[in-house]
Amino acid sequence: PPPPRAQSGVGISSMGVMNPGLVMRNIIPVVMAGVLGIYGLIVAVIIQGSIEAPQNGYSVYSLYTGFAHLAAGLCCGLSGMAAGMAIGIVGDAGVRAVGQQEKLFVGMILILIFAEALGLYGLIVALILSQNSYSCEY
Known about the structure:
- Belongs to the V-ATPase proteolipid subunit family.
- This protein has helices spanning about 5-20, 30-50, 65-100, 105-130.
- The chain contains 4 helices and no strands.
- Helix 1 (about 5-20) runs parallel beside helix 3 (about 65-100) and helix 2 (about 30-50) runs antiparallel to helix 3 (about 65-100).
- Helices cover about 75% and strands about 0% of the residues.
């Protein structure tokens, strides 16, 4: 399947042929899919900032800390992927439906917000996981 931004973009393009006045209003799914990428960037910067270089030839970055950072990245990435798929599918079908019946706009936005919340939960857990560390003593 195509990435969520592309999938929502295809729906917007398809809907724009029928009702061009709604194109800018229905750009929300594309923006929401982009926010998921920002979540990953936040986690990456936090993890990168807590990686320590070896001192005196000995590593102070423990296996425990490495796996905690791996778990944080996977948590944010996999929950972002699930949220992105949901946003892409709902965005595609939702903007096409709104193009035909504008009363569906609020319902589409609510579903998109709940899908985005999946990625936000992953970000929160990733931030908690990334704070776990153990410094090696030598």
